[in-house]
């Protein structure tokens, strides 16, 4: 795999030239939101300057152009994740909405007392809270696959928890706190052996590594545009065509129907059946532009680059001696490190490194139950992307060192 030309890539991101607190911005909060390359920003302005109109095949020229661009954006996103076509890709505003779409449209109709949803201790609240609450409403039971000491899923426990009572297995592909990359295909095989469906939360994998929905054999998969060089307000739900076909709509309204009478309505074809009302048009078009941008650079190269930075950060931080890094060893994780400096609250740490222009996240990263398992209330998290450098990791470690001396 050819290394990235990071100097060249950084030219695509004008925001990286910013100064923060008198020094260069060191942006290491990519797992929360990534930065946006010029070409993606331009795809938004191009839409508003040249062909802003409502979609769904209005008769006039602008509406035709907008419709074609919006529909083709689905094809591009489908191709990016190895889906069969636009029928399998519903645009949503983010991962959370995709998750709720399935929970409401499938869960409320299919789950009941005696049914089980199996998910994991390392889920993001987007998944954990959603299944927990849908189970409460339907009388189904929610079960959690535990994690091992090293932050892997306990696969023996998973094999025991997934039974013929299981209707849904929902798993985060790459953990936004531990950096663990979960064996989604293996879980899909176990789920399917028990006639259960599987949902992969790919918010931290689709932006960072090649993801092929057919190879993973998942029934559903969700991700957000704003973590993969795209705009906020964009995201997607992948679903196998026959699974989406069998599902009731989530939202009712315009554009999701083909025929309406006072008595009843007939649903539009996929994916429009799940896209009621005027969608986020420019955001969807820009998400496709982001996919093309990432594809031009190459997802394998991006994955390799991030993993090398994460391993370097893991090594440098653990060398400090009084830093605990959570999750698997440095050479087996996706591009992020969550950690705590002994005796310093993660919020104070993030605030001090911000004085040095270094942007990291502090808190529970929307994984409160996982932090309970780890036995800490909060952690600091640095997360890397294609434009980050080893020098930026050094800047982080220097700033953490400074924080230590301030609190000593
Ligand atoms: N799942 C994971 C693993 C995430 O990291 C995130 C974003 N922090 C989400 C779900 C939710 O994404 P969004 O806020 O874009 O819906």
Give structural attributes.
binds 4'-deoxy-4'-aminopyridoxal-5'-phosphate; Aspartate Aminotransferase, domain 2; 408 residues; 14 helices; seven-stranded mixed β-sheet; Aspartate Aminotransferase, domain 1; alpha/beta; four-stranded antiparallel β-sheet; 2 domains
Q: Helix share of residues?
A: 40-55%
Q: Name the poorly predicted regions.
A: none
CATH class of the largest domain: Alpha Beta
Biggest sheet features:
7 strands, mixed
Bound ligands: 4'-deoxy-4'-aminopyridoxal-5'-phosphate
What's the tally of helices?
14
- Indicate the proportion of strand residues: 15-25%
Integer tally of domains: 2
Rough shape?
globular
Describe this entry's structure for a reader.
This protein has helices at 6-10, 38-50, 61-80, 95-110, 125-138, 155-161, 184-193, 213-216, 241-246, 281-297, 299-319, 346-355, 368-374, 390-407, and strands at 19-20, 23-24, 26-27, 89-92, 116-120, 141-145, 166-172, 197-201, 220-224, 235-239, 257-260, 265-267, 323-326, 336-341, 358-359, 361-363, 379-383. The chain is α/β, with parallel strands linked by helices. It has two domains: 6-30 and 299-407, Aspartate Aminotransferase, domain 1 (Alpha-Beta Complex), CATH 3.90.1150; 41-296, Type I PLP-dependent aspartate aminotransferase-like (Major domain) (Aspartate Aminotransferase, domain 2, 3-Layer(aba) Sandwich). The strands form five sheets. A seven-stranded mixed beta sheet has the order 4-10-9-8-7-5-6, sandwiched between helices. Helix 3 packs across helix 10 (281-297), helix 11 packs parallel to helix 14 (390-407) and helix 12 (346-355) crosses helix 14 (390-407). The longest helix has 21 residues, at 299-319. The termini are far apart.
């Amino acid at each position: 795999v050819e290394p990235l030309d990071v100097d060249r890539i950084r030219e695509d991101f004008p925001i990286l030239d910013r100064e923060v607190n008198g020094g260069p911005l060191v942006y290491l909060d990519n797992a929360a939101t990534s930065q946006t390359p010029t070409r993606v920003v331009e795809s938004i302005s191009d839409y508003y300057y040249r062909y802003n109109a409502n979609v769904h095949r209005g008769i006039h020229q602008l509406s035709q152009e907008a419709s074609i661009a919006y529909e083709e954006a689905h094809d591009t996103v489908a191709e990016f994740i190895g889906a069969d076509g636009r029928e399998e890709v519903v645009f949503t505003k983010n991962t959370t909405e995709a998750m709720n779409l399935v929970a409401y449209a499938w869960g409320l109709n299919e789950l009941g007392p005696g049914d089980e949803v199996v998910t994991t201790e390392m889920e993001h609240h987007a998944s954990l809270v959603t299944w927990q609450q849908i189970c409460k409403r339907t009388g189904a039971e929610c079960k959690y696959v535990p994690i091992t000491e090293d932050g892997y899923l306990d696969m023996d426990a998973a094999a025991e928890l997934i039974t013929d009572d299981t209707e849904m297995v929902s798993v985060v592909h790459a953990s936004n706190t531990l950096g663990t990359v979960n064996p989604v295909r293996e879980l899909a095989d176990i789920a399917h052996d028990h006639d259960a469906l599987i949902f992969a939360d790919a918010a931290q994998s689709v932006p960072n590594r090649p993801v092929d929905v057919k190879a993973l054999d998942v029934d559903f998969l969700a991700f957000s545009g704003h973590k993969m060089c795209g705009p906020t307000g964009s995201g997607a739900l992948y679903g196998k065509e026959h699974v989406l076909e069998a599902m009731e709509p989530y939202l009712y309204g315009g554009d999701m129907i083909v025929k309406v009478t006072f008595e009843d309505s007939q649903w539009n074809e996929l994916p429009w059946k799940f896209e009621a009302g005027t969608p986020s048009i420019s955001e969807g078009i820009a998400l496709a532009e982001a996919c093309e941008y990432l594809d031009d650079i190459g997802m394998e190269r991006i994955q390799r680059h991030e993993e090398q930075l994460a391993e370097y950060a893991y090594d440098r931080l653990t060398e400090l001696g009084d830093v605990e890094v959570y999750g698997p060893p440095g050479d087996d994780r996706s591009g992020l490190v969550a950690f705590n400096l002994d005796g310093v609250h993660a919020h104070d740490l993030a605030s001090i490194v911000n004085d040095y222009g270094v942007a990291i996240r502090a808190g529970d990263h929307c994984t409160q139950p996982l932090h309970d398992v780890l036995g800490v209330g909060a952690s600091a998290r640095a997360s890397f992307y294609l434009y980050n450098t080893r020098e930026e990791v050094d800047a982080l470690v220097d700033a953490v060192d400074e924080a230590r001396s301030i609190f000593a």
